[in-house]
Design a protein that fits this description.
The protein is α+β, with helices and mostly antiparallel strands. Helix content is about 35%, strand content about 10%. Strands 3-2-1-4-7-6-5 form a 7-stranded mixed beta sheet, with helices on both faces. β1 and β2 form a beta hairpin. α1 runs parallel beside α5. The protein is globular, with a radius of gyration of 19 Å. The two termini are about 25 Å apart.
Length: about 280
């Protein structure tokens, strides 16, 4: 059995990693002044931890972090500082999926077009983003799109934010096929993972895949013209985009899971040398 001191060190390491994750995601333009990442409390799975409502790059100490109840996203301490209004994204996912231990929500601009163009789904185009097509059961290897307008109630503020539990539960239901990422119409995306490092990886490479796919679509239109076959890319005609197959996506996902520590170590080094970020955890 771990000693109290060992548990304290374990929690401290987890908090330091969470702060690093916010800085890494800002460094890679996945988060800007908005967006957030969380972890399930490593010592109590009925709680989760995320920062107070400040820009991710400015999070610097455990005093910036808040413990919340998974059940309803309420803060454990009544004296907690102001938190993000969209913490219900995190609580609902943790409540619905016990194996998920980290959640990130991003407004990455490269991804937004795929949330508003119904006929151009985000699909994995290279091996670093196989997770976009693996474990996705009935979604035909495309990333599902959550349209919050389908779930607004009369009293909801219709600003596209997931401000309450019923909207959080609706978004969480879009992960039921086992997908790792869900797009959010006119808003951004949410990604999940079994570890913090995996979740950060998926957030960064979701944005990169969106860039690459957009470039491929643009190149195709420039060379072959805008027409039939451009939209979904069925891989049958001249110039069609050949996306990863289901098995390629599954095997690529496995590869990135076992190698995720390599980019994580690099990213931690990058933020440590940047001069912008502070981490006193």
């Amino acid at each position: 059995m771990a000693s109290r001191e060992d548990l304290k060190i374990y929690l401290q390491d987890s908090l330091r990693a969470l702060i690093n994750a916010s800085h890494i995601l800002h460094y890679h333009s996945v988060l800007d002044a908005y967006g957030h990442i969380s972890i399930r409390d490593p010592l109590d799975p009925s709680l989760f931890i995320m920062s107070r409502a400040i820009a991710p790059a400015t999070i610097s100490s455990p005093s910036d972090l808040i413990h919340y109840h998974v059940s309803d996203a309420s803060p454990v301490s009544p004296d907690s500082p102001l938190g993000y209004s969209e913490r219900h994204i995190h609580s609902a996912i943790y409540k619905s999926y016990p194996s998920i231990n980290s959640v990130v929500h991003s407004h990455a601009e490269s991804v937004i077009p795929f949330t508003v163009l119904k006929d151009i789904p985000l699909k994995p185009v290279y091996h670093m983003a196989g997770f976009l097509g693996s474990g996705c059961g009935d979604c035909s290897h495309t990333v599902p799109v959550f349209d919050i307008a389908d779930f607004f109630r009369d009293h909801d503020v219709k600003d596209m934010l997931v401000r309450n539990q019923h909207l959080g539960d609706a978004l969480a239901s879009y992960f039921k096929s086992g997908n790792n990422v869900t797009l959010m119409r006119g808003h951004g995306f949410t990604a999940v993972g079994e570890t913090l490092q995996t979740t950060v990886f998926r957030a960064i490479y979701t944005a990169k895949n969106a860039d690459i796919q957009r470039n491929a679509l643009t190149m195709r239109a420039a060379v072959f013209g805008y027409g039939a076959g451009l939209i979904a890319g069925n891989n049958d005609g001249v110039g069609d985009i050949k996306y990863l197959s289901e098995q390629e996506a599954i095997d690529s996902t496995d590869m990135t899971i076992w190698s995720v520590q390599r980019p994580w170590d690099l990213w931690v080094r990058e933020i440590g040398k940047s001069g912008l970020y502070e981490n006193f955890a």
